[in-house]
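Our consortium's second objective concerns turning raw sequence data into structural hypotheses that experimental partners can test. To show how far this objective has progressed, the report includes one record in full. It was chosen at random from the queue rather than selected for favorable results. The single chain below, 283 residues long, was entered without modification.
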Amino acid sequence: MLRGGREQPEETPQPAPRLIFQERQRITGLPLYFQGYLSVRRSRCQEFRVYWTELRGTMLFFYDDKKAPIYSQKLDVSALTSATNVYPDENGSARFILMLSNGELELKANDCECGKEWKGFILTVTELSVPPDESLLPEQLRRMHEVLEKEKKRRITLNNCSSTSLDSKSPPSSTSIPLPACFYAVSRQEAIEMLEKNPSHGNLILRPGSDSKNYAITILYKLDAPHLKHYKVVSKGTSYLIELERRVTLPSLQDVVNYFVTQTRGNLKPYIIPTRAAEDPVF
């Protein structure tokens, strides 16, 4: 574009923040409680890596960039056993360590106030109580109490889902039973869009069923032309029934996924969002 006799560089359009939030929400399905930049390392022999980080439920999602719609790492902190005090380092940053059942995770925030805020929100959702930290500001405490009430309601909903009978209409809970890595809390149309948009991630998604109490498998074949199919997976107490021409009953949802993979001799592959863990393990 010419303006005032000079050619002005065109700005590269950036995705709207709301669209990024919707994409992340669609993939994770968990409520967002807190977010910001964190530096992370799993062991002291590794270097810190900076991530845009979201606390959703009791999960930490790490994004390579603030505008990245898909996370590169995630970590369940529900098994938190303790956390160290927030302490400043020589560069003015603030560090603290989360002690988890499977090891330690060291986190570094920009300053002590930010570090205490991160620690406070993490303890709130894992211990279901706001930490008695006198250094926290009234506004920070107010937001932590709001998050606490939201997390309590979420836990109650999950507990109700896991304790209902087979004829209830509660949706499947993503934490009441072990779920395969290719499970996403998305609709049929959203699953189709995910498969079409990123075929390199896989071609089979496990998702909630349309009746809100069972599950479904969505697959996308790409032979001569793209071919979509959907299969209902019915929860039968401690087993799962796949509604095929010849009905198949299996003991777990992972066995359901494995059945589709083995029956197609590997032509079907579970849709799994790639993480850097496969290339350069961090967590």
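The partners drew two points from this record. The CA atoms of residues 42 and 106 lie 6 Å apart. The helical segments are 17-28, 112-127, 138-163, 188-197, 253-263. Both points have been shared with the crystallography group to help prioritize constructs.
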